[in-house]
Amino acid sequence: MEQMKTVDIHDKIFDETYTAHIQKNGANWLGQIQDVPIVKCEAPTETALMKTLEKKLHEALIAEEETWEEQFEEDVKAGRLDHLGDKAIKNYREGKYRKVDELQKLL
After folding, report:
1. Is the dihedral of CA 47, 51, 54, 59 positive or negative?
2. Rounded Cα gap, residues 87 and 55, in angstroms
3. What is the DSSP string of the chain?
4. Domains and CATH numbers, the chain
5. pLDDT tens digits for 64-75?
6. What are the backbone dihedrals phi and psi of residue 86, each rounded to the nearest 5 degrees, phi first?
7. pLDDT value at residue 78
8. Which long-range contacts (CB under 8 A, 24 or more apart) does 6-15 make?
9. pLDDT of 1
10. pLDDT in tens, 18-57
């Protein structure tokens, strides 16, 4: 096996960058993204490996987003987030809030 290289992969849709670890192993290239463990693959060339990693990363991010959205919808329907709305209303009534333009100045 040759020495492992690290390369950044940027997903344009999610606007996130991940580090891939790639390595030549005999006739093929192996690659993985440690922050997204399900993204592992093998390809005959480095170029093909990078394309496959990008595609698998994007698919994994979509699956993660869909799972999160399903959980969120389930939590809303079950009332598990109601306490957050109640707290926001309580804080508003007690004057514990800031106007949006004030918050933008803080950023």
Report:
1. negative
2. 41
3. -PPPEEEEEEETTTTEEEEEEEEEETTEEEEEETTSTT-EEEESSHHHHHHHHHHHHHHHHHHHHHHHHHHHHHHHHTTTTHHHHHHHHHHHHTT----HHHHHHH-
4. 5-93 (3.30.160)
5. 999 999 999 999
6. -60, -40
7. 96
8. 7/50, 9/33, 9/50, 9/53, 9/54, 9/57, 11/54, 11/57, 11/58, 11/61, 13/58, 13/61, 14/58, 14/61, 14/65
9. 67
10. 999 999 999 999 999 999 999 999 999 999 999 999 999 9
Q: What is the 3-state secondary structure (H, E, C) of 11-34?
A: ECCCCEEEEEEEEEECCEEEEEEC
Q: Which two tokens stand for residue 44?
A: 């005959």
User: Looking at per-residue confidence, does 57 or 107 come out higher?
Assistant: 57
Which amino acid makes up residue 97? Y
The whole model's pTM is what?
A: 0.75
Residues in the chain: 107
Tokens of 82: 């109601």
Per-residue model confidence (pLDDT) at position 105: 85
Q: Give the sheet arrangement for strand 5-11, strand by strand.
A: 5-11, 16-25, 28-33, 40-43
